[in-house]
Design brief:
Layout lengths: L2 H11 L1 H21 L2 H13 L17 H10 L6 E5 L5 H9 L2 E6 L2 H6 L7 E5 L7 E4 L5 E3 L8 E4 L10 H12 L6 E4 L12 H8 L7 E4 L3 E4 L3 H11 L1 E7 L9 E6 L2
Helix pairs in contact: 7-9
């Protein structure tokens, strides 16, 4: 066997490492999504997102502008600046900064304290707080180091669930509660983006099939080391959760192609 043929055989054999990792990754996703506690998953997300460059202002990878689908939804449904907008799951401030550039006044909250500290105030246009959806209407001020009741202020004119933050809420009841809590603080539209389950799921592998038989795995719950826990919503599930939260879906997009993202716009009393 020539050296080239031996090298080719060795490289081909190394594909077994890739297959082994795929098996490990699927097993880890199943085990963590099913058995990890809420506190563990929250701590993991706080840790990972706080050190991810794309969420850190000042990093070359940080993006401070809207995606096209966000810009289109905001242009179609949001009141004009200088309306007041509430942004949850704000990360390092991508959506708040983009809103501030348009002239909006923004209140943002995010569970990761290092990310909140990194959000610029944009000349006083952004007030950033530490908080989770499940804690609303109470958040913690980074400036005064005290708790703030967002419900004590006049209602916001619009709100955004930060990019895919809706899908990081673990249970249906908690997603309903989050929408209800945000809607109680807002008079206008709320933009929600999410991970959407594919209409035609791929055939389940052996690990997924075994996990389902043992009731270890929800078909739509996932864990990924880069993004933590996330839930794949279906259209019917999303509509049902919004109805339970007392809001109506006025626009829904399931476009998951390049440059797009599944999202919906909801309002109270529609």
């Amino acid at each position: 066997m020539t050296f080239a043929r031996f090298g080719a055989a060795l490289v081909d054999a190394s594909r077994g490492v890739d297959r082994a990792y795929q098996v490990f990754d699927r097993a880890r996703s199943t085990i963590v999504a099913r058995f990890a506690s809420d506190r563990l998953l929250q701590a993991y997300n706080d840790r990972v997102y706080a050190r991810t460059p794309v969420y850190q202002p000042g990093s070359p990878q940080f993006r401070s502008t809207f995606f096209n689908w966000e810009a289109a939804a905001i242009a179609a449904w949001f009141p004009r600046p200088p309306a007041r907008v509430l942004v949850g799951g704000a990360g390092g401030g991508r959506e708040p900064l983009a809103l501030a550039k348009m002239g909006y006044r923004v209140t943002a909250f995010e569970p990761s304290e290092p990310l909140v500290e990194a959000i610029p105030d944009a000349g006083g246009a952004i007030a950033a707080h530490v908080g989770r959806y499940e804690d609303l209407p109470v958040v913690r001020s980074m400036v005064r180091r005290e708790h703030v009741d967002l419900g004590a202020a006049p209602p916001f004119d619009a709100a955004i669930f930060g990019w895919s933050s809706y899908s990081h809420i673990r249970r249906a009841d908690d997603r309903v509660a989050a929408v209800r809590a945000l809607a109680a603080l807002v008079e206008g539209p709320i933009l929600i983006s999410m991970f959407l389950a594919p209409l035609q799921a791929r055939p389940a592998g052996r690990i997924a099939t075994l996990a389902a038989r043992l009731h270890l795995r929800s078909p739509h719950d996932r864990f990924g080391p880069a993004i933590g826990f996330y839930h794949l919503s279906t259209r019917d599930e999303l509509y049902a959760e919004c109805e339970r939260a007392g809001v109506a879906v006025v626009q829904f997009s399931d476009d998951g192609s390049d440059g797009a993202w599944p999202y919906c716009v909801v309002t109270r009393g529609a």
